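COURSE: Structural Biology Practicum
ASSIGNMENT: Worksheet 4, Part C
STUDENT ID: 0417
INSTRUCTIONS: Below are two proteins. For each, the amino acid sequence is given first, followed by its structure token string. Answer the questions at the end about the second protein only.

PROTEIN I
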Amino acid sequence: MNLPARHQLRSLVTAVAVTLTLALAGIAGCEGQQDPGPPSVREKLRESHIDGQPVLRIGVSAEDPENGAFVDFEREIAKYIAKNLGYEGADIEYHPLNTEERITALQSGQVDLVISSFSMTEEREKDVLFAGPYFVTTQEVLVPRKLKDRVRTIEDLRDPQLKVCSSGGSTTEDELKERGIQPRLVMNVSDCVRGMRAGKYDVVSSDKAILAGFLSLYPEEFEIVDMPFGTTEKLGVGVPIGDPALRDLVAYFLGKSHEQGRKTGNSPWLTAYQTTLGRWLEADLPQPPPHDVPDLVDFDDKAPTR
């Protein structure tokens, strides 16, 4: 073989080797760029502000312990979420909050979560993050049994002789005023109920779930009247606006319970509802599907350790 032929062969072998090397490097690069998959629950916990905290602080209704079944229901939901975040028993602090204190308590860092009849609205989403809903309800009224025939419609509520009570800073207050009804405003719905029992007010308007809680305490005194307000209240778990990781975790655990209930007919949510509010509302009410549930990897069903 002459020199030019050898040179051509050597060049060809070199080109093939270079091409093979580049191809292998490309394959390795593609393998390195493969989708790592969804994050795990533990990874999300490390991203959240509660990572390493010895105590989980949950804002709850200041109605407690005066609202029977509804407070019991929300407490059970709070315990379920806390357990999945790795907190049980003495590791959980409950902070009673009035309606107007909920957003401030999250913004100031007083609490880590709020589970307190917190309606998910666009206006509030400017200040807090929501996971949920964990309950969907409607606005109704609670009246003494002696007035059940007098108070049947929204038009009846416009009677200036009728003293309608509601909590200030609530979506109920806004709805009443939009309907031309001027309510007497107090700090908490429990103040309305105490006032109605004392003859100070004639009607209490709030979420049906909250009213059912008071009905569970005074079943012989009051009655819930369904009103065609047309407003559906989606109650969610409030999370600080700067902690999307914690929001995702709460949404994931609510979604996990929802899927369990849908597939098996039993779940932590259904147990909580049926043993509390289900005695006073629809017994077979299903858990509402939570919004924007993230895809996370849950290694096991045990509470993550801190």
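PROTEIN II
(use this one for the questions)
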Amino acid sequence: METRGQEVHLDKVEARSGATPNVVRYILLISLVLVIIALSAIWMTGALNAPDNTGGHADTQQAVAEDGGKMP
């Protein structure tokens, strides 16, 4: 710390009053990876457990075939 008249001049470390480890950067990176894995797992299990439906087209064709080819 240096005093010039009534002004006080501090260097970066003194003004900040502490060290700045990069812990936050690692926490953000790890949590981002965990969120991507969790959301991917939720999406994949939902896709695997969903009924295999093609928008109702297969049901309509099956109903027409059972009806003898007549459309209502």
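ANSWER KEY EXCERPT:
Q1: The longest strand covers residues 2-4.
Q2: The radius of gyration is 33 Å.
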